[in-house]
Specification:
The chain is of the alpha+beta class and 154 residues long. It has helices at 5-11, 61-83, 108-123; strands at residues 29-32, 35-38, 44-45, 48-49, 89-100, 130-136, 145-153. It has a single domain, classed as 2-Layer Sandwich (60s Ribosomal Protein L30, Chain: A), CATH 3.30.1330. Helix 2 crosses helix 3 (108-123). The relative contact order is 0.24. Residues 6-143 form the Endoribonuclease L-PSP/chorismate mutase-like domain.
Amino acid sequence: MGETIEKRLSDLGITLPTPAAPVANYVAFSRTGNLLLTSGQLPLRDGKLTSTGLLGRDVDVAVGQEAAKYCAVNILAQARAALGDLEKIRRVVKITVFVASAPDFVEQHLVANGASDLLAAVLGEKGKHARSAVGSASLPLNAPVEIEAILEVE
């Protein structure tokens, strides 16, 4: 993959937004050594949630995957804000995907694929990562998905 990360984003029709600013007493990202950790990112597109509600009750897997994709887009936006250049990402180490789920919903892993697939498409081998997909009773602002990431960076 000789293309730049920005070119792959453009080819996918994705423009990274200005990253969301923290709304409480925390920071959007934290760097220690060669690790960059993001705070949980919601599925915001144009400043609004892409969807709301619980998976398995209000939201189906396809809509959840789209939400997870936008969480990953916002992770990349935070990484660009932290690093100045996405080419400084060596690899995505791990993502933790929180899925707001109805009690009987058991397909969190399928929802998480929305983020995993986007990261692999944009970053290639550097985008392949360890992952946890966790069901949650609810998430901030009634978001269906929230994702945090650990990145190895230059």
